[in-house]
Amino acid sequence: MDKKPCATCKSAGRGSISLALVGTLADTRIVDTLRRFAKRARNVRLELRTASSAEVTDLVRRGEVTLGLRYFSPDGADLVVHPAGAEAVLVVAAAGHRLAGRRRVT
Fold it and tell me: What's this model's pTM, rounded to 2 decimal places?
């Protein structure tokens, strides 16, 4: 496996990038971003695979994938980690529930 596939793709406009991601992260934004990338980089082969967060890290460490998208920051100085966005987490309750509409629950 080419140790610098992203650099190769950027400079030559061809090559391959493999991405492992946690399946629940494959939302519309990620899919749309990957589609835009695929249209701009037609000579770059993009391979996707889903895994758990721990598996994503293991795949990157073993060199089986180029990049990974996972939850939370993994341990270890052997990886370069950059935040890729923030995910909104919302509390949802039925309108008739006794806690619905409360700003604070103690």
Answer: 0.74
